[in-house]
Amino acid sequence: xxxxxxxxxxxxxxxxxxxxxxxxxxxxxxxxxxxxxxxxxxxxxxxxxxxxxxxxxxxxxxxxxxxxxxxxxxxxxxxxxxxxxxxxxxxxxxxxxxxxxxxxxxxxxxxxxxxxxxxxxxxxxxxxxxxxxxxxxxxxxxxxxxxxxxxxxxxxxxxxxxxxxxxxxxxxxxxxxxxxxxxxxxxxxxxxxxxxxxxxxxxxxxxxxxxxxxxxxxxxxxxxxxxxxxxxxxxxxxxxxxxxxxxxxxxxxxxxxxxxxxxxxxxxxxxxxxxxxxxxxxxxxxxxxxxxxxxxxxxxxxxxxxxxxxxxxxxx
Length: 316
Prior knowledge:
Elements: H1 10-21, E1 50-65, E2 77-90, H2 97-110, E3 114-120, H3 121-124, H4 126-131, E4 148-157, E5 160-171, E6 174-184, H5 194-204, E7 206-209, H6 226-238, E8 244-249, H7 256-278, E9 285-289, H8 302-308, E10 310-314
Parallel strand pairs: 8-9
Antiparallel strand pairs: 1-2, 2-6, 3-4, 4-5, 5-6, 7-10, 8-10
């Protein structure tokens, strides 16, 4: 893994080298990072930064500007679908917008990204340009429409197309940067029918559901969860004698207690929605959260963590 750092004194460089020799991973979570956050592999962060916002979606859409605005309008806006990771950083006092941006740009170049656009405020298109960038909300990310730098790049490797963008700006003498990575790809079919749920419960006593979506670090279900909830309701309506456990699972990002509580609250949210919107008797729905205790994939990889974040139906 790699890490970007400011040019400083020889002592500072020696300290960084010493830390790396002791096996400290630059991409590991740092004190002050938001829960569950991590650097994007192979890119890292500007030295002294903390992660103020982090959202990773297995499938999402993001806008990327590949050319400056003209007459306040986009001239080459890309709508990218696939796995999208958004990471917002706040630096320690001292660096400039340009220094932080150049470090990201250099690191992305080393990682194989070719430049599509690199511009400063006026050359990009001023305030209208920033309004067309998908940024994490304040206070996770701040942008001054009168003072910023933007970079967009593209990488083709292993049959996969990946895009990256970085917006760097300033608020109250602190530099904020958002790195957005979009790994293009088709959406996986995560729908499980009522019949498949019944078969899973009959054959194995449980079935994993990946079509229930929550806001990051919350137990608030997204509207996209409705098709899977409808199938659960159909299963229970068709088998009036069937009772189930609804069990929440997480990956290992964040503390043990945090994940245990989050998984429990998410299971309770599913049961509450089934009772409220689909008239399933609450007595038929028992809930539990086991956090990271029952992984079905390796928590050392993104793919494994995605498998571990799930809701399961379990036969009593």
